[in-house]
Amino acid sequence: MRLKTAPAALAICALLALSGCSQQGGETVASNESSSSSAASTSASTDDNAAARQPETETVPAETQKEEVTRNVTATLNGHDFEIELVDNGTARAFAEMLPLSGTLSELNGNEKYLMVSDSLPSNPSNPGTIEAGDVMLYQDDYIVVFYETHPSSYAYTRIGKIADVSGLSSAVGSGSVVATFTAR
Fold first, then answer.
1. Which of 85, 104, 130, 152 is the most buried (most CB within 10 A)?
2. What's the Cα-to-Cα distance from 6 to each of 43, 99, 122, 173, rounded to whole Å?
């Protein structure tokens, strides 16, 4: 009977090792937890192997935390600070990687300020229908746009984020060009 159990335990260990390497994030942790409980009934040595793999899975959340650090940006517009909450997409991540970013935002249509950037950002444009004051969007793949008035729109944008508190935004940006600095928080 022991001879049949030992090969089964080795097969489970090999399967756990392979499945642990091919999965990422929370899936690996869940897989190891369920595998560890089934392995406990098969062999004590399997538990030791699963426990030895546990520290590897704990490094994945650190990468997730790194992304969380760049979720908020401060936009200083004509000397006034506004906090931008970034969305979770490739465009916002690419924007955050460009920071700090400074330049002059130009006026357009009495409702937005824009800055052309030298590097193209990934885009996935769609028409939001209504633009809200505080929306921060990407137009085409190289224009960062800060909207300071709510209005309907037929244009397509890729969302970067939103200014959390728009009170004072319209008066801070005025009707002309705006000196702007975007920094990660």
1. 85
2. 8, 56, 52, 72
Per-block mean pLDDT, blocks of 10 residues, the chain (185 long): 47 43 39 39 42 40 45 95 97 96 97 97 97 98 98 97 97 96 95
Helix (H) or strand (E) holding 176: none
Which segments of the chain does DSSP mark as H helices, in order? 2-22, 25-42, 44-58, 60-69, 90-98, 169-173
DSSP 153: -
Which residue, chain included where needed, has tokens 């089934």?
A: 38
Are 158 and 137 in contact by the 8 Å Cβ rule? The answer is yes
- What is the rounded distance in angstroms from the CA atom of residue 71 to the CA atom of residue 126? 22
Tokens 């990660």 map to which residue?
A: 184
| Amino acid at site 1 | M
Q: Is 85 left (phi over 0), alpha (psi -120 to 50) or beta?
A: beta
pTM: 0.64
